[in-house]
Design a protein that fits this description.
Low-confidence stretches: 26-31
Largest sheet: none
Number of domains: 2
Shape: flat
Radius of gyration: 32 Å
Number of helices: 8
Mean pLDDT: 76
Distance between the termini: 85 Å
Number of strands: 0
Strand content: under 5%
Helix content: over 70%
């Protein structure tokens, strides 16, 4: 291809880039006049700008900013799971049979941890969105005085009292579930360190099997909490 042909092709591409640059608008709708003129000759520098949609970077940053961060409970569960997996990997060649025996219960334990964390998160959202003020629906005090409608006033007071009692029960349920989950995580972390200790002090494989069985048994306590929670909801 001759120099003249290359120059014509170069300018044709530059013209297309210049037109595209002109059509691209600022936030106020004004065309990029300087960019239009310079893009005709220096179009290779403007291609990345044209390929990147306006505000694309800002939208990506906004999406990252709006992503919900992991809760403290989720972070704690992930940390304990990592420590537990690392300890179980050490059992290879020493007490690997313990993993085979308790594999299903260990998986169940992790699943119950996540389920419990989800329920706690849901309860937190419910409690945060629940109006706990002393004001009734119509802006009146929660204990209105209605001399001409004493029956209606009594029903309102009774309903408000029942509502507050239910909110308190929800809060107690959340606190109970969170305390039991935190206690389970702390107990497993302690047992994990005991596995490391047994490994490096030359303890027999039976000791590791016993510790793994205790870790797997932690799911039973959380299952009891789940049953208790369901019974509480049904009773209400």
């Amino acid at each position: 291809m001759s120099l003249g042909s290359s120059l014509v092709l170069y300018l044709m591409i530059g013209t297309g880039v210049a037109v595209a640059t002109y059509l691209r608008r600022d936030s106020d709708g004004a065309p990029h006049r300087f960019q239009v003129a310079s893009s005709l000759l220096f179009w290779p520098l403007y291609l990345p700008l044209l390929l990147n949609p306006p505000g694309g970077i800002d939208r990506n940053a906004e999406m990252k900013a709006t992503e919900e961060p992991d809760s403290e409970i989720d972070v704690a569960i992930a940390r304990v799971e990592e420590e537990l997996d690392r300890a179980l990997q050490m059992l290879d060649g020493w007490a690997e049979d313990a993993i085979a025996v308790e594999a299903s219960r260990l998986d169940e334990l992790k699943a119950v941890w996540r389920m419990q964390a989800d329920r706690i998160g849901e309860l937190n959202q419910v409690l945060e969105s629940t109006d706990t003020s002393e004001t009734g629906l119509l802006g009146e005090a929660s204990s209105p005085t209605l001399p001409r409608q004493s029956t209606a006033g009594g029903r309102i007071r009774q309903s408000e009292q029942g509502r507050k009692a239910n909110i308190n029960r929800l809060r107690e349920l959340r606190d109970r579930m969170q305390a039991d989950l935190t206690g389970s995580l702390a107990w497993v972390r302690e047992l994990v360190t005991m596995i490391h200790l047994a490994r490096y002090t030359g303890a027999p494989a039976s000791r590791a099997e016993e510790l793994v069985a205790q870790i797997a048994a932690a799911v039973e306590g959380l299952s009891e909490v789940s049953d208790w929670s369901q019974e509480t909801v049904r009773a209400s």
